[in-house]
User: What shape does this take?
Amino acid sequence: MRATTKFKSMLGGSSIVVAPGAFDGLSARLVEQAGFPAVYASGGAIARSTGVPDIGLITPDEIVRRLAEMVETVGVPVIADADTGYGNALTAQRAARAFERAGVAAFHLEDQTFPKKCGHYDDKALVPAPEMVQRLHAVRDALHDPDFIVIGRTDAIAVEGYAAALDRAAAYLEAGADMIFVEAPTSEKEIADIAQRLPGYKLINMFHGGKTPLLPASRLQELGYHVVIIPSDTQRAAIKAMQRVLATIARDGSAAAMIDDMASFKDREAVVDTAGYLARDRRYSA
Assistant: This one.
């Protein structure tokens, strides 16, 4: 089954799809091995993994290479972040084709100006709603797989207000978005109202420290959401763990004091399936 078809079938199931964020093949595999049904390829986490902030500094080609690496590594659907489409309707079309070739099951496209900012930063700017509508038409025209899920995202709450965000979301659904993503609601009341007032599939972003209050996945499902992404928690945990082990090495000359907090050599090799690769190598060499 194609990843797109698999993901679309999940949306009609009885459980909300929880998709933790990943930013490379290793983190994607860890998400899958933890039992999650999908991986969210966070554009912000991918950017930060190159050492830069989430302000539109890395190129679409860099992102597509990373997406292809993640898709190759896992057997579950990958949901991607296409930012603003990287310019205009034509660049959005080109990105849509590239993302589809990379093998992702879905991506979200947002209505910020290019270059974008993280959805929970201040001082964002939006393109006019009609321009975003045309971007959605453009990417829908560019895609070949009828099961590919296009997610329309609006960042309007912080810029134009809550009512404008709902109006934009409705327009994006009418323009061909299969799912809507209203970024950064600031209360449980707004979270519930978005789910009640907008038809179709709905995605919500959950992470500690953002503008949106954290709700359990079970509650989000009750409210009517179909997908919850948790973009940056894996990377934030990895940053903290690396800082701790580096401080230990600097202090002691080795990481021996943290050995219980580190994957063993054997566990590390199991994550990347070294034994499986070597077994296939022996089979093909016979």
